[in-house]
């Protein structure tokens, strides 16, 4: 196994700040570490906390897209151009960028991890289903249109696009087009049903999972799902791997490692 | 045919590699994954009486020669850990239950629970360098250690291992006190107390400020400690600290370790590290005409 690598903490300066939707902010910073679509980094805000964040932009000016849901994300979403954060990574196994006709399904902030993968595929081959609770929380519709020839939106309350959830929308799109691969990222309940749909339709898929994560470096085991480290063997797992998991869609762990129902 | 089998204080193992406590040992599933990697035995995460979150992040610093961590003993508590032990038992190899407490009575209670859960041995964490009131804070005092070992020995019938800290000049005194109190084996070493300061942030990186250094950086200290313990003790020694290939495993065994534990090596080389080490040791034995691995234990001594 060639897992040996070393990652150092690097200080970066916020170069741009974009409000993507209500309570969701993208921070861009110059950092030339090699990274692939679907990988994540550990972001340290000294004095506050250190948290895992998917890379929403690759290249030399990288980016993270943060939803304000807790102490660390509140500190991040409050950051301004010129502020500094510490980053280490990138970590984990991202998407295996596929060929053929691709359907991308993103729920909530899930599009953040999917867009760098989409941008490596010809737009004519990519269709996209973006799910949001309502129009106000809808993310990355315009950016998706630049890299995907067919972008459709679902909202739970029907305030925009398809009235329903992203999996229902994906099912509709699958009935119109035969896809070779589905990429998914979003709330695990969504991924669970999307995975089920892909199995029923016989379409291979890859999905990015989240778990409470402490060290990020493949050591502590806090992010383990069925013995697989989300930070190392994941965060992206294939449909076949997900099929073998007993905990996928069913159980996560709290900060102490205790079992919680999803 | 070469044999990698070892018997450690009555615990039979197919090979001398063990998962060290603190790495991938918090859930049944992760323990099973380490067994699949080829480990001969598994040591659980250190478990306490009640659920504990551990320290806030950052809890890990990656260094080119190892890691520095201050997890702070996160664990789901002994009550909830029964489910994980049950799942881990499907591996079919010995599980060693690691426990930490703040008193001899607490250690004894936890050890008894681990025995009920099917642990084939219990390992006393007397050496964590970054949790206030636990681990190393008790493990540097020979009298305190002897008292804990006595209580635990009265509480269980399975073998009792004491994992000791190198952060003291009294390691041999502590080990002898544990031996005198009836401990069945010594595990050495735990991490070295350490600190990392980020010059850009101008502050320690770890939220706990202090952490424990592990990986190849500490191997020389670990081998020295095992060498000294082998000379001073009659009971078996288990070597741990910076082992990540067959050479470093054999280094510890030649210093006197009957078995070795691997922690950081799982992070640096992956779960296959156990199988890879065993394959390397087997080749070495074949090339040198050695049939039984126990023939190599302690050969570095005069």
Structure summary:
With 262 residues, chain A is an alpha/beta fold. Chain A is 20% helix and 35% strand.
Secondary-structure map:
The complex is a heterodimer of chains A (262) and B (302).
Chain A: E1 10-21, E2 24-30, E3 40-45, E4 49-57, E5 61-67, H1 71-77, E6 84-91, E7 102-107, H2 111-118, E8 126-132, H3 141-147, E9 150-155, E10 162-163, H4 166-176, E11 181-185, H5 188-201, E12 205-208, E13 224-225, E14 228-229, E15 236-238, H6 239-244, E16 251-253, E17 259-261
Chain B: E1 6-8, E2 11-13, E3 17-19, H1 28-36, E4 41-43, E5 60-63, E6 66-69, H2 78-88, E7 95-99, H3 104-116, E8 121-125, H4 136-139, H5 142-155, E9 160-163, H6 171-180, E10 185-188, E11 192-194, E12 197-198, E13 203-204, E14 211-214, H7 219-232, E15 237-240, H8 246-255, E16 257-262, H9 264-269, H10 273-287
Parallel strand pairs in B: 3-4, 3-16, 4-7, 7-8, 8-9, 9-10, 10-15, 15-16
Antiparallel strand pairs in B: 1-2, 5-6, 6-14, 11-14, 12-13
Helix pairs in contact in B: 1-2, 3-5, 5-6, 6-7, 7-8, 8-10
